[in-house]
């Protein structure tokens, strides 16, 4: 017996997650993107990540056609954009600065609001229930010295480390 979808959502909503905007460009050059917290590392040795895309997403066809996408993890400056890309707005790119990825088939890279971005090529796709899981190789990535945007239980926050200035633990 499962926990039920409400309990499942409560479970995953109980901890803060980074917010990403996943972007793609279809064969006709149309841009698409959506807000996601369903992005995770698969393997550092093969530089792969996983993105979960709902079957109803308007970005899904562009990813399936191009076999490429960009993951733009958001900095604190990306809060408004995360809300726009989570909506059904017609022109989600109207108020964001972006450049086309040379590697990910022109997928928009959100250079002004990104904490980091990864330019990805799809290696595998798996259909699971009402989503597609895309496993992709990160061909190139860029990280900016900005504070990350986090999301938990319907609210936004910004990372505030307690150990600022303390050296990283190397024994892990």
TrEMBL record:
Its domain of life reads Bacteria
Sequence ranges assigned to domain Flavin reductase like in this UniProt record: 12-158
Q: Per its UniProt record, what InterPro entries does this chain match?
A: Flavin_Rdtase-like_dom, NADH-dep_flavin_reductase, Split_barrel_FMN-bd
Query: Which keywords does UniProt give here?
Result: Oxidoreductase
Q: Which GO terms describe its molecular function?
A: FMN binding; riboflavin reductase (NADPH) activity
Give the matching Pfam families.
Flavin_Reduct
| PANTHER family xrefs | FLAVIN REDUCTASE, FMN REDUCTASE (NADH) RUTF
Q: What is this protein called?
A: Flavin reductase family protein
- Could you tell me which species this protein originates from? Streptomyces odorifer
Q: What is the lineage of its organism?
A: Bacteria, Bacillati, Actinomycetota, Actinomycetes, Kitasatosporales
